[in-house]
Amino acid sequence: MSKTLIYAHRGASNLAPENTMPAFQLACESGAEGIEIDVQLTKDRVPVIIHDENVRRTTNGTGLVQEYTCEQIKKLDAGSWYSTKFSDCSIVTLDEFLCWFKTLPMLLNLELKTNVIEYKGIERLVYDALQSHQMLDRTVISSFNFNSIKTINEIDPHVQTAFLTSKKRHNLVKFAKKLGTTSLHVRYRLLDKKLVKDCHKNKLSLRVYTINRPADMNRCFKLKCDAIFTDCPYEAVEYRTQIQK
Ligand code: G3P
Ligand code: MG
């Protein structure tokens, strides 16, 4: 089996404000194989990259993403909360991101943030954007909301999808297979040898989040998880190199 891949979680989010262009650029320079992004919809139904449903934590604005038009949300400062050095950062639209990302030899994990707000129709909008940028073959679409996974599978059964979970669930692998997903993305505390074995026996990829401690990285590499999501891609790449020496 090949090495455990590294996805920069919200970009290199330990070095720059999460889900912004500087975080994505650093992720690309880190040697990580992939980037994970979180996608929600504005009031005028533009997919934008932001983790929370509310802009309060990561911008100078207040209120829900869905209460802003794209033009309005682009005016927010998405960097100063992290450091004044990043005060010129704005929220990135999915289209802006894909225009930049598609020229790079990297993998994408696009997380649909549909577990709190449904954002009806987001799956089709995101699918069309990925298709128009010819990104479908190196993207895995994930969600905590299994209905989003079902919808993507209905739109195109060949797309790689992942059911995301942080909860222990009886027969998780069976559930994922029934859902028709190609992978499972699980919180670290759910990881054990048996889960890795069950996933691989059932031809499911297993990716684990969010792995920032060296000891946890090493465990994921040794257990042969297919990928980890980390806020610290530079460190993860280094630890992986060390362990493989
Ligand atoms: O996709 C892995 C991870 O990003 C899921 O949780 O809350 O960080 O988006 P969260
Ligand atoms: Mg995420």
Automatic annotation (TrEMBL):
Q: Which CDD domains match?
A: GDPD_TtGDE_like
Pfam annotation, one family: GDPD
Q: Which PROSITE patterns match?
A: GP_PDE
Q: Where is the GP-PDE domain?
A: 4-240
Query: Which Gene3D superfamilies does its entry note?
Result: Phosphatidylinositol (PI) phosphodiesterase (3.20.20.190)
Indicate what this protein is called per its UniProt record: Glycerophosphodiester phosphodiesterase
Q: Which organism is it from?
A: Halobacillus campisalis
Taxonomic classification = Bacteria, Bacillati, Bacillota, Bacilli, Bacillales
